[in-house]
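Structure first, sequence second, as always.
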C-alpha cells in the first residue's frame, strides 16, 4: 500500500469529515487496498467521522454511509468546485499558510475564480 499505507489511520485520527466526490466505495474498490473501503466507511461512521457524498446518483455508498448527499447534475463538478473556491477566497477561509508554502500559481487561479481575468466571478448563480 506504500505510499498510502497510513492514509486510513491518518483520516481516522485527524478528521471530522470525509468527502467522497463522484465515487462509490461500496462498489468500486480502492486501488491501494481492494474492498477494504466498505468496512472502513462503517468504522468511520462508528467513530463519528461524518461522510459527505457529492454525486448525481444516490449510489450504494451514499445511500448507506452518507451523513449528507449533495446531488449535482452530471458534468457540473467543475462549476461546484470553482464556486467552493470562490467562497473560500472571498471569505478568506482557506489555509493561507499552506497555500503560500505548497502551491504555485495561486494568484493566477485566484484572479480567475474572482473574475478578474474575464469579468465573470465563478460562483453558482442563485446560490451565492
Amino acid at each position: 500500500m506504500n505510499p498510502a499505507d497510513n492514509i486510513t489511520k491518518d483520516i481516522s485520527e485527524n478528521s471530522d469529515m470525509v468527502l467522497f466526490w463522484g465515487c462509490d466505495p461500496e462498489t468500486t474498490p480502492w486501488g491501494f487496498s481492494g474492498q477494504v473501503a466498505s468496512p472502513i466507511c462503517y468504522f468511520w461512521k462508528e467513530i463519528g467521522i461524518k461522510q459527505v457524498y457529492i454525486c448525481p446518483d444516490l449510489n450504494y455508498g451514499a445511500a448507506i454511509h452518507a451523513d449528507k448527499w449533495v446531488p449535482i447534475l452530471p458534468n457540473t463538478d467543475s462549476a461546484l468546485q470553482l464556486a467552493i473556491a470562490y467562497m473560500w477566497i472571498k471569505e478568506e477561509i482557506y489555509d493561507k499558510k499552506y497555500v503560500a508554502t505548497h502551491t504555485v500559481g495561486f494568484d493566477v487561479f485566484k484572479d480567475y475564480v474572482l473574475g478578474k481575468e474575464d469579468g465573470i466571478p465563478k460562483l453558482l448563480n442563485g446560490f451565492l
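Margin note: Strands lie at 17-21, 50-54, 68-70.
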